[in-house]
Amino acid sequence: MVANKILAVDDEPYNLEIIEEILEENYQLRSVNSGLECLKVAEEFQPSVILLDVSMPNMDGYEVCRQLKENPSTAEITVMFVSARGTVEERIAGYDVGGEDYIVKPFGNNELQTKLASLFKVIENRKSLEQQVEDATSAAFNAMSLSSEMGTIVQFIENIGTIDDPDELAKALIQCMKSFGLKTCSAFLVENEVSHFSSEGICSPMVIELFELLKNKGRLYEFSPRILVNYPTISLLILNMPLDDPEKLGRIRDHICFIVSVTEQQLKAILTARTLQYQKMQLKRAFSLVRSRFEELVCVLNLSHEMNEAIFRELQEEFESRIPYMGLDEDQELYIFHKVDDTIQKSVAREDLLTDVKSAFFEIEDDLSHILE
Q1: Please, what are the averages of pLDDT over each run of 10 residues along the chain (373 residues)?
Q2: Domain 148-273 class in CATH
Q3: Which of the following CATH numbers is that of domain 5-132: 3.30.450.40, 3.40.50.2300, 3.30.310.50, 3.30.565.10?
Q4: Pair type for strands 220-223 and 226-230
Q5: How far is it, in rounded angstroms, from Cα 309 to Cα 315?
Q6: Which of 85, 78, 83, 69 is nearest to 118 (CA)?
Q7: Which of 10, 81, 167, 303 is spaced 20 to 30 Å from 242 by Cα?
């Protein structure tokens, strides 16, 4: 409705002429002379106010107002009754059928202008309040939608933290997009091989080609109603962006980059864990090999120690049995015994060093065990 449009309804042409003289300079005015014509013109003209005569043949003003209020396309039009009588009963009857003001004939210029000014203030305030309610309702709805969407995103992030397989991660991403009502295809780069996934089952050859052709077109590439999100290891193609809902469209644009970014980080974590697991296996193999070599070396050292002990025992026994028969004087015998004893003591010192070497080997083995753990 245009704010300054008024429809005057009266079966007396003279009354309509008076109204026209008063209002035609300040308002967009139309006049009709029957209730039936009023119902027809009001739906098409959509005035802000109808000046409606009460006493008319065939259909009086009250019935006209009743039918106006029953019609959704004219129910919001403000009605001011115009009557030669202004009793309390007539005014109440007018209010009962939906009228908002009442003016009694004959009326003057100022009276009509003042009443209309007051009505238009009421209309303006009503529109302002309706707009505020609409804005508040829209804001509340958007807030609830955003809250629900953020809940979905938080749940998605919590769920993917337990996923350790790239294929399962791709399926979780598609399921998350489905919760927003979106049809999607995705491409995952894992160990230099690309795998494709689709909410519709299998990606078409054309979609697979699009992933390749648009990989270097930037982070976001839009070709309505589609949008492609590109990250180094994940690309996500949304096939049905909600173009008919600008609010949701804006939210989805904000959400998808964050969701794909988080998914990419989880994919990197999965691949890093795989690499660490492989490295751990390799380290275990190296540890087993080093331990085997240590054990072999310790065996050799132990064998060497046992052989040295046997040789020195044999040498000592031989000297003890033969020296008394060599005809040596006492000083010579003591010299030889001291020399042999000194040699044995030096050998024992070397054996202590060998023990230290074995101890060092065991410490290295223990350190490697801790690394593996």
Answers
A1: 79 91 89 93 93 91 93 92 84 87 87 88 77 55 59 87 92 91 92 90 86 88 89 93 87 88 93 85 78 73 71 70 69 71 63 62 67 60
A2: alpha beta
A3: 3.40.50.2300
A4: antiparallel
A5: 10
A6: 78
A7: 167
